[in-house]
Amino acid sequence: MFKTMMQDILFPWGKKRELIRWIALLLMAWDHWAAWTDPGDIWMRLPGRVVFPIFALFMGASLARGFSVWHYVKRILPFALIAQIGFIVFFYPTYMGRPIWLYWNILWTLLLGALLTDALRRKQWLTVPAYLFLAFFVDYGIEGVLLIATSTFLALSLNNAYEHNANERNTSKHKTNERNASKHSTDEHNTNKRDTSQTTKQFFPFLFTIYLLNLTIVNFSGFSADSLILSFGAWLIFPLMALVRVLPLGLPRGPWWVAYAFYPAHFVLLYIIKIIVQ
Fold first, then answer.
1. Which of 73, 106, 208 has the alpha carbon at shortest distance from 153?
2. Which of 110, 210, 214, 268 is the most buried (most CB within 10 A)?
3. Does the keyword Amino-acid biosynthesis apply (predicted)?
4. pLDDT tens readout for residues 203-245
5. Which of 76, 73, 83, 70 is nearest to 28 (CA)?
6. What is 198-253 written as a DSSP string?
7. Rounded to two decimals, what is the model's pTM?
8. Which domain does 59 fall in, by range?
């Protein structure tokens, strides 16, 4: 019962997933505005604590059902490069106490998280240290990169999701995009998915506990009251996603690139507003 509930809440599909995606994107824009106007106001920053965990869950669900990691890389990389320009311009000269040149935006976090997860599932241990080292330079750091891995393994432990996901993928009008990845890569990922799923599905309690721990520390910066509020603010994904699940609302899925394009585009919009305000 609990596993089924978590599966339905944390890994939605169809119109519910798209609605949550756009809620997260709008909260992201709000959080970046709050970070510029009043970074010390934790109540303005609190809603944004759910954004990255939602993105991590969505990527984890896709990786768990065998979506090609290199297909993700080809999709994300151009937008990550473009967005980094806007990220530097908007937050120059520092962000989160670090020189902006040494702080890579959230799309790099998603990219590294996908690569790390793939390496762990394939047991390519030699590449893991390199990904963990690079994680120190991205938004949300090593905790954020690991959250994508824990989200993926959590999705794998909810084994019933895969029959549902496979059926939806077969009937989706976007299945053509899935076939663009090479057959060899797809076969490898599908085999890897089945093997990992069999291994992880019996460890759901352990994996869920690890996920909650990772979810808590992804926003952790100290033991002050403000820091702890922001840390546990990530847990707001549970009531938010549960609320969306029961609401008679949803959004149709648009082109895959729109959500990625929104990221660099929102920096342009915020920068224009910033100039007007100043």
1. 208
2. 110
3. no
4. 899 999 999 999 999 999 889 999 999 999 999 999 999 999 9
5. 83
6. HHHGGGHHHHHHHHHHHHHHTT---SSHHHHHHHHHGGGHHHHHHHHHHSS-----
7. 0.84
8. 2-277
